Amino acid sequence: MGGHFGELARIRHVVTYSLSPFEQRAFPNYFSKGIPNVWRRFRASVFKVAPPMILLYLTYTWGNSTHEASKRKVHADFENEE
């Protein structure tokens, strides 16, 4: 009664290959190539990403401190009042 779900239609001139998950290694070259590749990519992009982030952080903290300072009262203005 019909084909299985993966075999419902055939596409002509398309060849697909598959490998059993039991024949694949889960983490091939993870320590020998994976971690050095992550480090290389990090070093390549850190100088592109970090300066704008640092600038935005400094601007944000400066804005917050300025806002907090502007909300305070100057006590010298109110010395002569009772």
TrEMBL record:
Pfam families: UcrQ. Its main location: mitochondrion. One of its GO terms (cellular component) is mitochondrial inner membrane. Gene3D superfamilies: Cytochrome b-c1 complex subunit 8. Coiled coil: none annotated. Component of the ubiquinol-cytochrome c oxidoreductase, a multisubunit transmembrane complex that is part of the mitochondrial electron transport chain which drives oxidative phosphorylation. The complex plays an important role in the uptake of multiple carbon sources present in different host niches. Belongs to the UQCRQ/QCR8 family. This is Cytochrome b-c1 complex subunit 8. It comes from Champsocephalus esox. The lineage of its organism: Eukaryota, Metazoa, Chordata, Craniata, Vertebrata.
